[in-house]
Design brief:
This protein is mainly α and 341 residues long. The protein has a single domain, classed as Formate dehydrogenase/DMSO reductase domain (Formate dehydrogenase/DMSO reductase fold). It is 77% helix and 1% strand. It has 13 helices and 2 strands; from the N terminus they run ααααααααααββααα. Strands 1-2 form a two-stranded antiparallel ribbon. Helix 6 packs across helix 7, helix 6 runs parallel beside helix 10 and helix 9 packs antiparallel against helix 10. The longest helix is centred in the first third of the chain and has 33 residues. This is Cytochrome bd-I ubiquinol oxidase subunit 2.
């Protein structure tokens, strides 16, 4: 395996980490209207991700930085062609982050409701648009011979892109419900289980459609067709397994199966994309591939040594953070705390 191919999969793993970790953040944010029927319940839901949401978001920064350094052509074409959706994602993430920090600054129900609404919007919009973006990356866009996007933002709202977007929205929502059920007690815990049961079937149907359609796209790029089929099958199986565990009240196993579902689903998308990084729908000769979009071997070599040193430290710090904040967020603790906490 050459360095360009290696870095294609390293970038994929960074996005896996981002969607697994920030995915349940999005789900928790989207679940707020369903689980938080009073201020104590809403604070209990938000506090499940309070210590970790900003750490989870750093994965997308690292993924973007690695994409820029290892595949500058891919980065340039992607960010110019997808400028508006990515800008909307960025604004939504800012809106969500500000809301987490400001909702408790004033003991006013209307003040808190406004920021709670922004948390929901700031969670749902990225969950949808990340799926739309990756659906278009896999399917391909209108790239000319200079690798310039010749379509419009409305071209990105095609059936496959929207299906992947709806799938990520529902999948992250379910993933977040599993996390809330795992991390809370009392009425919020029971509501999370109940809403997870209700959202399971739509999520399975959307995911099944995405897997079948993605395999159909990958059939035209036979390099990793069997890997795409296998990863799609594993994702589908573990999604069903997560639902079964949830129904049986095994919250930890349901969340773990949800992690495997998202991990294999993202790898399925990258396998369907390989060996391209951004296919062209105008002419296959215009497509960006791993080889023609990558940096020089020397740059990739330096990045490889840097990643070898830095990644274990990042993973160790992330694991330590989750270990420190591993306890349940109990309703009695929230009730005993000041209203602004």
């Amino acid at each position: 395996m050459d360095l360009a191919t290696l870095w294609f999969w390293i970038v994929a793993l960074f996005f896996v980490g981002y969607f697994v970790l920030d995915g349940f953040d999005f789900g928790v944010g989207m679940s707020l209207p369903f689980l938080g029927k009073d201020d104590v319940s809403r604070r209990q839901v938000i506090n499940t991700i309070g210590p970790v949401w900003d750490l989870n978001e750093t994965w997308v920064i690292v993924a973007g930085a690695c994409l820029f350094a290892s595949f500058p052509e891919w980065y340039a074409s992607l960010f110019s062609g997808f400028y508006l959706p990515l800008l909307v994602i960025l604004l939504a993430l800012i809106l969500r982050g500000v809301s987490f920090e400001y909702r408790h600054q004033r003991d006013d129900p209307r003040w808190k409701r406004r920021f709670d609404t922004m948390i929901v919007i700031g969670s749902a919009v990225p969950a949808l648009l990340w799926g739309v973006a990756f659906g278009n990356i896999v399917q391909g866009v209108a790239l000319d011979e200079r690798h310039i996007f010749r379509g419009s933002v409305f071209d990105l709202l095609n059936p496959y892109g929207l299906l992947v977007g709806v799938t990520t929205l529902l999948l992250f929502f379910l993933h977040g419900l599993y996390f809330v059920a795992l991390k809370t007690d009392g009425v919020v815990h029971e509501r999370a289980r109940r809403v997870a049961r209700l959202s399971a079937l739509p999520t399975i149907l959307a995911a099944a459609g995405t897997v079948v359609w993605t395999i159909a796209i990958a059939a035209g790029r036979p390099s990793l067709l069997w890997a795409t089929i296998g990863l799609g099958a594993v994702a589908a199986v573990f999604l069903i397994v997560s639902v079964v565990f949830s129904l049986r009240g095994r919250d930890g196993w349901a969340f773990t199966a949800g992690v495997v579902t998202i991990l294999t689903a993202v790898l399925m998308l990258f396998s369907a994309l390989f060996p391209n990084v951004l296919p062209s729908t105008i002419d296959p000769a215009n497509s960006l591939t791993i080889q023609n979009a990558s940096s020089t071997p020397y740059t990739l070599q330096i990045m490889s040594w840097t990643a070898l040193v830095a990644m274990p430290l990042v993973l160790a710090y992330q694991a330590w953070t989750y270990w420190v904040f591993r306890k349940r967020v109990r309703r009695s603790t929230i009730e005993a705390a000041p209203a602004h906490a």
